[in-house]
Design brief:
Layout (H helix, E strand, L loop, with lengths): L1 E8 L10 H16 L8 E5 L9 H9 L5 E5 L5 H15 L4 E9 L6 H8 L15 H16 L3 H15 L13 H6 L2 E3 L2 E2 L8 E9 L8 E10 L15 H12 L8 E4 L4 H11 L7 H6 L16 H4 L5 H15 L13 E8 L4 E9 L1
Parallel strand pairs: 2-3, 2-4, 9-10
Antiparallel strand pairs: 1-7, 1-8, 4-7, 5-6, 8-11, 10-11
Helix pairs in contact: 6-9
Length: about 375
């Protein structure tokens, strides 16, 4: 068995003067304190990539910066799925005996350490280098195309997408570390600046500086351990032009295999943390996983079915759409919030304490998927 025994999350937004290594270190210190561990207790380090510090050996660079010499160190790249992929790998490493206490880290100064043109160039690389990138498409453009296709197939509307943006902002308003806390309405979303039709700027995640870290252990140390009972991955074709079915990206298969490995059913899940790079991303993942009927995710959000007091609260920190998105640590913030929620430490955001949580993230344009199941000890 492997356990998530500590988590640390910085605020997301502007951290002027803080580098990738600084933000990773801040989050790591918070996670170690939360787990009641010291740096000398860590014998494994896994970190995600950084677009502002694209070092070939980022994990060992961090270890040097942080002052530790683990027996295992590894850097991973899976786009937006990286954060949960790191935890899945840590779970497997602990089970194999390669390490006993692994520090899992993501962090990046994407807001203050990268120009707009550089960010666009980096993120455009998810497209096909011959058939897509030269045509100028960017990630918002791909998701705009998916949104149009989805609206036609399932009857979702721009207002339904807006309802999910409103929900994420409601949740972020209760978190002091969120990048955006001012409440918004569906009309605000619909009236916001167009980015890639039908998506507006409030349908899109932000760019932020920030960091997040967790500690995965072979033993339930500290005062707030959780069991990592299930994990799975699913990988489609990398490029949207090679996808065979734009209505089935494998998220449902991935979560089902994670739940099966945990010996659980979807009906037993009491807290959900789902990747939300765009409102269409959240719409498609919720519905494909089976957490809402096709075409109804926005309406269900509007009806309060994913609120703090519902049977399945969703992204109670505000998600990527409102807490913020700083690369690998973006999805890891979902994990940190699940840890707080499941251990009863979320303050005014606290929902009914759950015993089983499902987390899901995707990388690229819904091309790579990772699901995790967490359970109380």
């Amino acid at each position: 068995m492997s356990y998530l025994v500590g988590s640390g999350l910085t605020s997301y937004g502007k951290h002027e003067g803080s580098s990738t290594l600084d933000l990773m270190s801040q989050a790591s210190n918070l996670a170690l304190k939360d787990a009641g561990l010291s740096r000398s207790d860590i014998d494994g380090v896994i970190c995600g990539y950084s677009t502002t510090l694209p070092h070939l050996m980022l994990a060992t660079l961090f270890c040097e910066h942080f002052g530790i010499s683990p027996q295992y160190a590894h850097t991973v790249q899976m786009g937006g799925a990286t954060g949960l992929g790191l935890v899945m790998l840590a779970k497997q490493l602990v089970a194999s005996g390669a390490a006993r206490r692994i520090l899992v880290i993501g962090g990046e100064n994407r807001m203050t350490g990268q120009s707009r043109d550089s960010a666009i160039q980096v993120l455009a690389q998810v497209g096909h280098p011959v058939y897509e990138v030269p045509l100028g498409a960017t990630i918002p453009a791909y998701y705009g195309l998916l949104a149009s296709s989805y609206m036609k197939a399932f009857g979702s509307t721009e207002q339904d997408f807006a309802a999910l943006a409103v929900l994420m902002r409601q949740h972020a308003s209760r978190h002091p570390g969120a990048q955006f806390q001012k409440p918004i309405t569906e009309d605000d979303v619909l009236a916001s600046r167009p980015i890639a039709s039908p998506l507006k700027i409030l349908d899109c995640c932000s760019v932020a500086d920030g960091g997040c870290a967790v500690v995965v252990s072979a033993e339930p140390v500290g005062g707030n351990p959780l069991k990592i009972t299930g994990a799975a991955q699913h990988h489609n074709a990398q490029h949207i032009s090679a996808m065979k079915n734009l209505n089935d990206f494998g998220a449902g298969q991935c979560t089902q295999r994670a739940l099966q490995s945990a010996g659980r059913k979807l009906s037993e899940v009491e807290y959900i943390a789902i990747y939300d790079s765009f409102t269409i991303t959240l719409t498609m993942l919720l519905e494909e996983i089976g957490l809402a009927p096709r075409g109804q995710a926005g309406n269900w959000a509007r009806e309060g079915r994913f609120s703090k007091d519902s049977a399945t609260p969703l992204n109670l920190h505000g998600g990527l759409l409102s807490y913020g998105h700083c690369g690998v640590a973006g999805a890891m913030a979902h994990l940190a919030e699940a840890h707080l929620q499941m251990t009863g430490r979320a303050g005014e955001r606290q929902a009914r304490r759950s015993g089983v949580s499902l987390l899901h993230a995707d990388g690229g344009v819904l091309s790579s998927h990772v699901s995790l199941v967490l359970e109380s000890v």
